[in-house]
């Protein structure tokens, strides 16, 4: 190692110090290591980060900056064209090495490949690492050597291959960064909303690496003990809520996997515990989504199942779309979910499927409209997961729900919110209804509505659709394109 060697570590969605391969490698080969964040959302078009993601990013960068300062370093923030910012930083610092952790979105892959080639042509050492996945997309294939399009064989192959590495530790100290090296203030990025809508987000999350690990340990010690059943209940705190932490790289899937294995080794869980194994399979679904995005980069805009390219989507009714977005459909479980999303930046996975089914099947509004709304309002908006989730529900993705599976929101609400706790929390205007009418207030007799102080159409909307009629209409439309599925 040269005593004067300097390396830049380009941080993106790996906003943590522990288990950060690019950072660790830089520390092993360079005397001076400079952590850099470059804000260039336009380079991710057409899927630039949405408003909720930008809110999270602001607080995550702030937490990382504080963590770096505690170890003797600091975060250098720049904004603009990434290639130009990197060129400038290399010139200002005399750095001859650049390291980053890989991302997998199509636009980002293209940009990163161009940067890598351009800088290598200038004799800059450039290297990228895997920090976001247990398995790289090119490491898992089916028996024919092709990308897997069905989850179960994909995850079986992953489990058979096994995870044979441990997370990297947090550095004990970091080299100081030249105080003359300029960094723009975090506030100058303008990530926070100009309208005061984020109060609920702030009260719902502890953003940053520490918050991610506290959430994981709390989940392992608590909700994971009943995860296989309770994960379907939006009225219970039965999930890990790690998704935004994973998206921004405040924690890695390797750290999550390692913590689960440590819980087994410490006797907190049997090795074949069904709740733990089911949770790990959900981490597997995240992996699967990333593998699909990598191998099928057209899917954020186009159906993986090409039969759906000829689906006769009707013209979108803007009033119906707006009612869905704002939680004013008159279908209680749907409205509860959409309001939870607006208030907290998150939505329980069970009701994500319910609201997506209502939009793409009952209302026959293109799934991309829903994907774009989620993209702007979810703090865990992740191109791989968002694309896979919407295409699964719409029936046009890998391992997708069959076209004839149309979630009945009334039955879903009665099954997974049996005491109505979730609906009453987010749709308080109908909280006075008895349980047997809470999920379907339009069936309640006039005297029941009066006793609950509900005036349908005024205090709470009439349903914007007939669930039975729209189901039949959807079945007819979807059956027009159905063919025997293609084996994969």
Automatic annotation (TrEMBL):
Cofactor dependency: FAD; (6R)-5,10-methylene-5,6,7,8-tetrahydrofolate
Domain Photolyase/cryptochrome alpha/beta: 5-134
Feature type site, description Electron transfer via tryptophanyl radical: 313, 367, 390
Binding site for FAD: 227, 239-243, 279, 380-382
GO molecular function annotation: deoxyribodipyrimidine photo-lyase activity; DNA binding; FAD binding
Gene Ontology terms describing biological process: photoreactive repair; response to light stimulus
UniProt superkingdom: Bacteria
Pfam families (UniProt xref): DNA_photolyase, FAD_binding_7
Keyword tags: Chromophore, FAD, Flavoprotein, Lyase
UniProt key word Lyase: yes
Function: Involved in repair of UV radiation-induced DNA damage. Catalyzes the light-dependent monomerization (300-600 nm) of cyclobutyl pyrimidine dimers (in cis-syn configuration), which are formed between adjacent bases on the same DNA strand upon exposure to ultraviolet radiation.
Family of the protein in this entry: Belongs to the DNA photolyase family.
Protein's UniProt name: Deoxyribodipyrimidine photo-lyase
Organism listed in the record: Ectothiorhodosinus mongolicus
């Amino acid at each position: 190692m040269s005593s004067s060697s300097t390396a830049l570590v380009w941080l993106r969605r790996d906003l943590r110090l522990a288990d950060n391969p690019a950072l660790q490698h830089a520390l092993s080969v360079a005397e001076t290591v400079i952590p850099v964040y470059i804000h260039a959302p336009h380079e991710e078009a057409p899927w630039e980060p949405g408003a909720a993601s930008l809110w999270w990013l602001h607080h995550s960068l702030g937490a990382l900056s504080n963590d770096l300062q505690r170890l003797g370093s600091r975060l250098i923030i720049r904004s603009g064209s990434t290639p130009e910012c990197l060129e400038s930083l290399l010139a200002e610092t005399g750095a001859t090495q650049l390291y980053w952790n890989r991302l997998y979105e199509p636009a980002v892959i293209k940009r990163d490949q161009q940067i890598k080639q351009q800088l290598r042509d200038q004799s800059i050492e450039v290297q990228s690492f895997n920090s976001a996945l247990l398995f790289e997309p090119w490491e898992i294939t089916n028996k024919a050597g092709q990308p897997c399009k069905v989850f179960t064989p994909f995850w079986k192959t992953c489990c058979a291959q096994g995870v044979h590495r441990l997370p990297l530790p947090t550095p004990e100290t970091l080299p100081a960064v030249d105080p003359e090296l300029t960094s723009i203030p975090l506030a100058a990025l303008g990530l926070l909303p100009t309208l005061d809508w984020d109060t609920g987000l702030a009260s719902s999350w502890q953003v940053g690496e520490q918050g991610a690990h506290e959430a994981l340990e709390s989940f392992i010690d608590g909700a994971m003990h009943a995860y296989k059943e309770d994960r379907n209940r939006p009225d219970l705190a039965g999930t890990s809520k790690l998704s935004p932490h994973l998206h921004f790289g405040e924690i890695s899937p390797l750290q999550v996997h390692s913590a689960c294995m440590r819980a087994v080794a410490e006797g907190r869980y049997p090795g074949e515990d069904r709740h733990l194994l089911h949770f790990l399979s959900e981490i597997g679904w995240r992996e699967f989504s990333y593998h699909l995005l990598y191998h099928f980069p057209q899917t954020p805009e186009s159906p993986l199942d090409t039969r759906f390219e000829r689906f006769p989507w009707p013209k979108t009714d803007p009033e119906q779309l707006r009612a869905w977005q704002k939680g004013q459909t008159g279908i209680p479980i749907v409205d509860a979910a959409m309001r939870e999303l607006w208030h907290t930046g998150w939505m329980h996975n069970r009701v994500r499927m319910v609201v997506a089914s209502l939009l793409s099947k009952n209302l026959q509004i293109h799934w991309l409209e829903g994907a774009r709304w989620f993209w702007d309002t979810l703090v865990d908006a992740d191109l791989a997961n968002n694309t896979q989730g919407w295409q699964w529900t719409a029936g046009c993705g890998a391992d997708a729900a069959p076209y004839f599976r149309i979630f009945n929101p009334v039955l879903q609400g009665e099954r997974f919110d049996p005491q109505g706790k979730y609906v009453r929390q987010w749709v308080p205007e109908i909280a006075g209804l008895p349980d047997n009418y809470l999920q379907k207030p339009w069936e309640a007799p006039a005297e029941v509505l009066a006793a609950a102080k509900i005036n349908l159409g005024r205090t709470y909307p009439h349903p914007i659709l007939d669930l039975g009629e729209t189901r039949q209409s959807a079945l007819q439309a979807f059956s027009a394109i159905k063919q025997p599925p293609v084996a994969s």
